[in-house]
Amino acid sequence: MGNIYNYLMTAWQEERKNNLFILLAALVLVTIPLPYIFNSIAVGVFVLSTIFSSRNYKFSFQKILIYPIALYFLMALSIVWTIDFKITFEALSKELPLLLIPFCFFIIQFSNSEKLKILSYFSHAIFGFCIFYLIKAIVRYFLTNDVSVFFYHELVTLDLNAIHVSVYCVVSLFYFLVKINKSTFDKVAIVILTSVTILLSSKNIIITFIILLLIYAFFNRKNTIKKNYIYLFLILFIATSIFFFSKIKERFEIEIQSTATEKTINNSMSDKGPVYNVTINDAWNKDRFRHNDYFSGTALRVYQIRIFKELLHEENIFFTGFGLNASREKIKEKRIEHNLYPGYERFNFHNQYVQNFADLGVFGFILLIIIVLLTLKTAIKNKDFIHFSFAVLMISLFLTESFLWRQRGVVFFTMLYCLLNTNMIASKFKKEI
């Protein structure tokens, strides 16, 4: 009897410990859309709890966790050669999750079912946030009669960033989508998350989302007819929304116009005189611009790659870069040199691959490539579509955003990188779902 009691007490204590870290890990993800202080506290509590409990766990070295840690050490090392010591030093604290979160995963190992719980908490929380954003937009619409409150940054605020929230929505959506036996709530969540993803109007994420849906529909062999109807409905819903929602349609039209058409006027910004859309060709080749030239998302990113290419030839940064976050002043100098409208220097490179190279040199670039390719390789090996969707989203997002140079971005990426790449989630995940 005493042995049974001791066994049950040990099992209960182990379960209590595991549940605590499940909740703490989920809290790190769930607080990402909240003001920065809440997420900082959640990360701090997770890290400190792991350290204080480390004696109860067996340290498990996992090679895949070394790469984000190595990236952080390179960031810290860049303080030796940075061209702006203050900016680099301040940025190091924001990038700490790259060091601290992988360290926690050396100590805390989650089982597949525990990882599933963490993903569940996160996905349900993002669904809740989406409901809140929609209700807030409806209230604002009745107060202002302005339909723009339903779209892009207006829906979630510029600080939170529509593109970042789109990523959270798509990852959460695939959590609900891969379930074999979907409840009514799961189906509602799919519709709401899809709708919010569309309203957020991120061209990159919408296109990547459609591609992921097609991949999932093509490779999934269970319930093929039923699932194909679901995917066809979702794809048609997205296509119809893009066609009818003028705000979304307008964002796509500007990109199409700026691809090749010379001297097109941006009608949405021309109430104070003609504002001309900059073509991709001009963004790459034109030496001097006018203050009434407008860069669409694609044109701006092409221009940013172009000035990085110029800086790479003009400055001795191939091996070192300018230092973490220290390329801002160089971007400003290029803005002045090419006569862009004042204010464009506030944009960083908007490309994580370029940002890594410019700030940390070729080794920072190589480390990032290793990180994303390992994530994709592990996802394919495990045949885990949530993991795969995360990997593809990050590879695509890094082409248009310096995601890891934002606090929310680095916490989200590092947490899911560690969670999905350690101890293999796939086999039991399928059974639990």
Write out key terms for the chains shown.
two-stranded parallel ribbon; mainly alpha; 19 helices; 2 strands; single chain; globular; 433 residues
How is the main sheet built?
A: 2 strands, parallel
Mean of the pLDDT scores?
85
**Poorly predicted regions:** 7-12, 425-433
Task: Trace the largest sheet across and list its strands.
Answer: 1-2
- What percentage of the residues does DSSP assign to strands (E)? under 5%
> Helix share of residues?
55-70%
Helical segment count: 19
Structure class: mainly alpha
The end-to-end span amounts to 37 Å
Task: Please provide the count of β strands.
Answer: 2
- Succession of helices and strands: HHHHHHHHHHHHEHEHHHHHH
Radius of gyration: 23 Å
The coarse silhouette is globular
Structural description of this entry:
By secondary structure, the chain is an all-alpha fold. Helix 13 links the parallel strand 1 and strand 2. The two termini are 37 Å apart. The C terminus is likely disordered. The protein is globular, with a radius of gyration of 23 Å. The protein is built from 19 helices and two strands. Helices cover 70% and strands 1% of the residues. Strands 1-2 form a two-stranded parallel ribbon.
Summarize this structure briefly:
The protein is mainly alpha-helical and 433 residues long. Helix content is 70%, strand content 1%. Strands 1-2 form a two-stranded parallel sheet.
Question: How are the SSEs ordered, and which strands pair?
Answer:
Elements: H1 2-30, H2 36-52, H3 66-77, H4 85-94, H5 97-107, H6 112-144, H7 152-156, H8 162-177, H9 184-199, H10 203-219, H11 224-244, H12 246-260, E1 276-277, H13 280-285, E2 293-294, H14 297-314, H15 328-337, H16 352-382, H17 385-397, H18 407-421, H19 426-432
Helix pairs in contact: 1-2, 1-6, 2-5, 3-5, 3-16, 5-18, 6-8, 6-9, 6-19, 8-9, 8-17, 9-11, 10-11, 10-17, 11-12, 16-17
